[in-house]
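Worked example

This section walks through a single chain of length 361. The input is the sequence exactly as stored; nothing has been trimmed or padded.
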Amino acid sequence: MDHLAELKEFARLHAGGQGLTAAQVGRVLRHVHDDEPGSPRSWARVWTAEGDALAARGETLAACQHYTLARFPYPGDPERVHAQQRAVAAFDEWRTGTGGIERLTLHHPAGSVAAWAAGLDARRPRPLLVVMGGIVSVKEQWAQALPAFAKLGFAAVVSEMPGVGENTLQYGPDSWRLLPWLVNQFQGRADTNDVSMLTLSFSGNLALRAAVDDPRIRRILTVGAPVSRFFTDESWWHQAPRITKDTLARLSGTPDHDSAFATLRGLALDAPTLSAIRVPVRYVVSRRDEIIPAADPELLAAAAPRAKFRRFDDVHGSPAHLNAMRRWLVLSLLRLRAVDRFRRARVAGPASPVLTGSAEP
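Given that input, the structure is written out below as tokens.
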């Protein structure tokens, strides 16, 4: 598959995840003829023009969605850099008019990290929910859901993986440490001893590793997270989509695909590491995943004692099953937290109601 065809295929997944219909996406893609910077019908220029037209009509959230596709898969040329900036600005304008979402700029020792948040409250700290996408998705793609999570009782924060969007850190074997650091930033405004991780794709790998060392992480929900073989099987790496390898080289600061593979091997999680994850993990498997090998969720299932799975006959991210996937993830999050609260209440008090059915969803 050539570069432009790959772009169109993967963009359909991310467009659907933002709520754009297949017809809307198809209408824009018909005008995209190449991916050459400066070309009048290039990928970035066509998507940006659509975003500009929507912004001019006051449809700032829709404009943001189009800008995020214009910068896809990463801002590697001036037009994509411009689209990335426009996406952040459009979302900022939308959330300012809507209310309920705040912007945070956090200063990490190795760079800067930005986030959107809802439900942070020093007077009544709520359980913390950290939301993070993968290597090609920016925080603006998920941030419109923050008020809904706040209504469900969470202090919800969405940020980005190292090297993605406004995160200036470099991606590598120690990137899992970003998640405990991020949790620390909300101490006092959230209950950081009760943390849920809704970490999708490659950020799910970081959450799994972080849970080994950080007991504050009480539950992990993920979709298509690489576990081990993706990072260690050279034959699988060579057949992975070029966009995935290009993006990983970019985020890791390596000059080519082979260097990226060598650098990122340290992200692989072996069976002893996975067996040390004592918290519940809920993982969406796509049976025809072209990025994550089937051996990865299989290893997680064999090694992690509290991992459960939902399988869809689909490609990476299960784009044809988005509604069912979202329902399963949100319901799993709520059920797991309810069970955890019940268990802690039973330990704390002499009298508790009887919990019927399965002890863990």
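What to look for: The CA atoms of residues 1 and 225 lie 23 Å apart.
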